[in-house]
């Protein structure tokens, strides 16, 4: 059944976050800090591996060559300008604030950070994009099932240090992956392996940016760079 992968992923995020919240109550601050550092380091390498897979190709001579670099640059620049004009990062933070007020939990100072960080990590990665596309094209949700297990662990660790805001990242995940699956099903005749590779590469670069923010504090407006994922679609249509 098309869309089943996203539903399973949604439930995995809720269950993983719930378990993380249970763990959080028994951890001291120094353990929270080391968990954030561990998540940041893991996120960096997850993003780096996906980005390198899209940017580095093995030539016939056995040497590595770069590819798609200009598309990456243009996607990030144009996407960044669009995201900055729309203030997507602020909008995501405002959504987190609204959810926080609905819960009447004004004492949770990490709610917004947990919501935004977890949303970016579990939504814009290569597996989220490629898995949702495969689910929409063929009904094969194998990759999203594997992603569900990874996300279960990731959000459990995030929730144990950043709190209940992490659990609410399941909502944009449901909307985002569901939209990709539905779109892939509707435009299946226009999708090819090259476009999927472009989307995965851009998504992985954004994941790398999330890892930088986790380790070094908020240095990059990754939320404002999200429209970069759309640029390869426009590029493939016209070129």
TrEMBL record:
<feature type="transmembrane region" description="Helical">
    <location>
        <begin position="70"/>
        <end position="90"/>
    </location>
</feature>
<keyword id="KW-0812">Transmembrane</keyword>
<dbReference type="InterPro" id="IPR007563">
    <property type="entry name" value="DUF554"/>
</dbReference>
<feature type="transmembrane region" description="Helical">
    <location>
        <begin position="111"/>
        <end position="133"/>
    </location>
</feature>
<feature type="transmembrane region" description="Helical">
    <location>
        <begin position="35"/>
        <end position="58"/>
    </location>
</feature>
<dbReference type="Pfam" id="PF04474">
    <property type="entry name" value="DUF554"/>
</dbReference>
<keyword id="KW-1133">Transmembrane helix</keyword>
<protein>
    <recommendedName>
        <fullName>DUF554 domain-containing protein</fullName>
    </recommendedName>
</protein>
<feature type="transmembrane region" description="Helical">
    <location>
        <begin position="153"/>
        <end position="175"/>
    </location>
</feature>
<keyword id="KW-0472">Membrane</keyword>
<feature type="transmembrane region" description="Helical">
    <location>
        <begin position="195"/>
        <end position="216"/>
    </location>
</feature>
<feature type="transmembrane region" description="Helical">
    <location>
        <begin position="6"/>
        <end position="23"/>
    </location>
</feature>
């Amino acid at each position: 059944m098309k869309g089943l992968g996203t539903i399973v992923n949604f439930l995995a995020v809720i269950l993983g976050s719930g378990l993380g919240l249970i763990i959080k109550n028994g951890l001291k601050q120094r353990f929270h800090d080391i968990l954030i550092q561990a998540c940041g380091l893991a996120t960096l390498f997850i993003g780096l591996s996906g980005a390198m897979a899209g940017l580095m190709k093995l030539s016939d001579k056995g040497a590595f060559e770069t590819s798609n670099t200009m598309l990456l640059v243009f996607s990030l620049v144009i996407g960044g300008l669009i995201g900055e004009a729309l203030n997507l990062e602020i909008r995501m933070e405002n959504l987190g604030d609204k959810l926080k007020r609905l819960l009447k939990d004004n004492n949770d100072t990490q709610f917004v950070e947990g919501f935004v960080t977890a949303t970016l990590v579990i939504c814009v990665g290569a597996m989220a994009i490629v898995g949702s596309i495969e689910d929409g094209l063929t009904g094969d949700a194998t990759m999203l099932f594997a992603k569900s297990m990874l996300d279960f662990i990731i959000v459990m660790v995030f929730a144990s240090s950043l709190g209940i805001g992490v659990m609410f990242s399941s909502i944009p995940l449901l909307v985002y992956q569901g939209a990709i699956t539905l779109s892939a099903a509707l435009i299946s005749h226009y999708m090819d392996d090259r476009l999927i590779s472009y989307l995965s590469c851009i998504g992985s670069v954004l994941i790398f940016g999330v890892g930088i923010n986790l380790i070094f504090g908020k240095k990059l407006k990754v939320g404002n760079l999200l429209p970069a994922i759309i640029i390869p679609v426009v590029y493939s249509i016209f070129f």
